[in-house]
User: Which sequence fits this backbone?
C-alpha cells in the first residue's frame, strides 16, 4: 500500500518544548520519522513524506506547507487508492502493528490515538476526507458514515501512542529499540520508576 | 479461563482526587469494575474479584488487604492455571480485546499499559510470579525469562489504557459506551477539543 507520512519539518513537536530545545526537537522528530519509515519499509509499503518544508530522509518528500487536513486531502485526491496515512511521531510502531492496520477490513480503517487523535488511517473509499482538526477520531467516524464507507477500527497500543507530550517519552524508552530510543538515551534521558506510571528524567539536561 | 480482577475498595483511584472527591472515586471505580466484569463474562471467562475490602459486584469476591503483588501471587498459587489477571480500571476493555489476550501464544502473555504498567496478564506457567511494584512491564519480562517461560505480548490500546490520571478520563468518554462513561456524563463531565489532545471539562463540578 502507498503510505503518506505527514511531517512538520519547521516546528516539530512544539509540545515537547519544556524538555527539548528547538534543535533537539528537530533531531528527535527526525529520529522518530526514520523509525516510522523503516517500519513501513519492512512491512512492504511505499512511503511518501508529506512535509511542511524540505527534509532529508529515506523516502520521497512532497513539500506542502498548507494545513495538515488540506494537504492530506489533496494528496489523497492525487493518488490511486488504497492509501494509508501514518503519523511521523508513532515511535512505537512496528511492521506487525502496521500489518494489523492494513489487514483490518473496512473502506476506512482508523487507529485511535490518545486524546481522540487519529494516528493512522487506511483509506479505500474515494469520497472519504480527513479532518485532523479537533477530536479527529470522532470526525473520521462521521466522515466515513457520511459517504457510506464501512469503518474498521484497529486496536493497537503501538499505533495509539503518539509522542507529543513529555509524559509520552517514557513509552519510547520502554517500547522502541531503534533510533528514537537511542536519541533520547544519547540526550541523557533515563526511565524513572514511581508508585504510579514511570516517567523520564534527564539528570544533566534541560528536562 | 479463570480471571482475577484486583480491586482497591478502600482508596480507589487516589490519583483522580483533583477531579473527583472520595465518594465519587468510589462510585466511578465501581462503574469501571462492573464494565470489566461484564466484558470478562461476555468473553466467557469466570472472574473473581480480589479486593482489599468487601465490595458488592457481579462476581465472587476474595478479600485480601495485603499489597497487590503478594495478594496476586498467593491467589495464583491457589488456582489451577491458566489464570488471567485483569486490572479493574481498564474501562476501555471489550470482549474482543480480552480474546486477543487469551489467544496470544505464550506461557506468560502481558498487555503493556501506559508508563510501564502491566494492565493484563495470562499466566500458564506455574513458577511465574508477578511484581507490580515499579516498572512492572520490565519486571514481568525478566520474571518470565528467569523461569524459562515463553513470553507473549499483546498489542492493544483497549488493554493498554488504564484510567488513573485526570487526562485518562477523555478516553472513557470517547471509547467506553457503558457504565463508566454514563457515570462521567451523569457527573457532568464533557469532552473538550483542543489543538492537541482532547481533555474533559466539568463545567459545574469539582473538576
Assistant:
Amino acid at each position: 500500500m502507498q503510505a503518506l507520512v505527514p511531517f512538520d519539518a519547521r516546528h516539530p513537536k512544539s509540545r515537547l518544548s519544556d524538555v527539548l530545545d528547538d534543535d533537539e526537537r528537530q533531531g528527535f522528530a527526525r529520529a522518530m520519522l526514520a523509525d516510522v519509515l523503516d517500519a513501513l519499509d519492512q512491512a512492504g509499503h511505499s512511503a511518501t513524506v508529506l512535509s511542511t518544508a524540505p527534509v532529508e530522509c529515506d523516502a520521497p518528500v512532497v513539500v506542502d506547507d498548507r494545513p495538515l487536513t488540506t494537504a492530506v486531502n489533496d494528496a489523497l485526491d492525487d493518488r490511486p487508492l488504497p492509501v494509508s496515512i501514518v503519523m511521523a511521531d508513532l515511535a512505537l510502531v512496528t511492521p506487525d502493528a502496521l500489518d494489523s492496520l492494513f489487514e483490518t477490513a473496512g473502506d476506512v480503517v482508523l487507529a485511535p490515538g490518545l486524546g481522540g487523535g487519529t494516528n493512522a488511517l487506511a483509506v479505500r473509499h474515494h469520497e472519504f476526507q480527513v479532518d485532523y482538526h479537533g477530536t479527529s477520531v470522532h470526525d473520521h467516524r462521521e466522515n466515513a458514515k457520511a459517504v457510506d464507507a464501512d469503518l474498521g477500527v484497529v486496536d493497537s497500543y503501538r499505533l495509539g501512542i503518539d509522542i507529543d507530550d513529555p509524559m509520552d517519552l517514557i513509552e519510547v524508552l520502554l517500547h522502541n529499540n531503534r533510533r528514537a530510543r537511542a536519541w533520547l538515551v544519547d540526550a541523557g534521558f533515563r526511565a524513572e520508576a514511581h508508585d504510579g506510571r514511570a516517567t523520564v528524567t534527564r539528570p544533566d539536561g534541560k528536562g
Summary: The CA atoms of residues 138 and 148 of chain B lie 16 Å apart. The mean pLDDT of chain B is 96. The beta strands of chain B are 2-7, 46-51, 61-63, 83-86, 108-113, 117-123, 151-153, 190-192, 199-201.
